[in-house]
Fold this sequence. Notes:
By secondary structure, the chain is of the alpha/beta class. The protein folds into two domains: 2-60; 67-303, Alpha-Beta Barrel (TIM Barrel), CATH 3.20.20. The chain has ten helices and ten strands. The strands form three sheets. The chain has a five-stranded parallel beta sheet with strand order 6-5-4-1-10. It has a three-stranded parallel beta sheet with strand order 7-8-9, with no helix packed on it. β7, α7 (218-226) and β8 (231-233) form a beta-alpha-beta unit. α3 packs across α4 (122-133), α6 packs parallel to α7 (218-226) and α9 (272-290) crosses α10. Residues 117-118, 172, 176, 212, 310, 313 line the site of zinc ion. Zinc ion (ZN) binds at residues 117-118, 172, 176, 212, 310, 313.
Amino acid sequence: xxxVVSAIKLARSTEATANCNYEQCATQDSMQMANxxxxxxxxxxxxxxxxxxxxIMIWREQNKHMQRLHFxxxxxxxxxxxxxxxxxSSEFSRQMKLFGEMQRATQxxxxxxxxxxxxxxxxxxxxxPILQEQAVRARFFITVGWTxxxxxYMGWTDLRELxxxxxxxxxxxWTHTLLTHCNATQLQTELKDARLKLExxxxxxxxxxxxxxxxxxxxxxxxxxxxxxxxxxxxIPQLQRSSDEELVGRLNVVGGMSLEWMERVLDxxxxxxxxxxxxxxxxxxxxxxxxxxxxxxxxxxxNRSEPQSDEPA
Length: 313
Ligand SMILES: [Zn+2]
């Protein structure tokens, strides 16, 4: 750039003082040199812009097909708990350090993503500071009817605080009723009304939701689409192979899961995720054979559920 400016200045000053043929020739040469430099510079800038655009497009394309594994959390506590859906905050901190590092590493084969279901108050008080410290962005799926009404769950001011901290808010039904049990009117409340209420309160689109209890069928999926959701998060532990997949699987995190195990599950070569997906299919058969009520009772016994705890994810 400095050369271009010098050449133009030289050309102009030479032209201004030129009064003989020799000097006129010199002026023409300088002008030609300046023009050549300008053309070269414009070509360079044009190539640089094209290179940047191409790089962004390639990055987006690569990112789109980057495999992601979504983890599902519910509640954090500072102390150990026998309730399996509680993760100790110190453990969560170690997990987010790993996840943050893997998200920023360009060579990660599988990128971990964080989601929370239900809207427990610990999501704000314990999880958010850790997420911010490790620069990890999470999705929080909120049971709308519990917001500001149920003890231990976030209110609208809390959700706005999460939103202001660049975290994403999605829906998790209105009453947390299993959607497979709902008639058409109930589905309207659980899905569309929940989305509209979140959008009204938060002033932002809510295109994502997670299925209470992980239950769905064709009718539920159709109702989710009609209610305006673009992505539906399940509780089936499987990889998301493209960022625009409609159904997104998740791995439920329970207390006591070791960091080493989580690292292994994020390594496709370990085969752990395939084993988990097979187990989930067996669980699906058990649910259909036993029915939701009996299955939920057995689940509560096995997982030492607490009186106000969530149903099986
Ligand atoms: Zn839930």
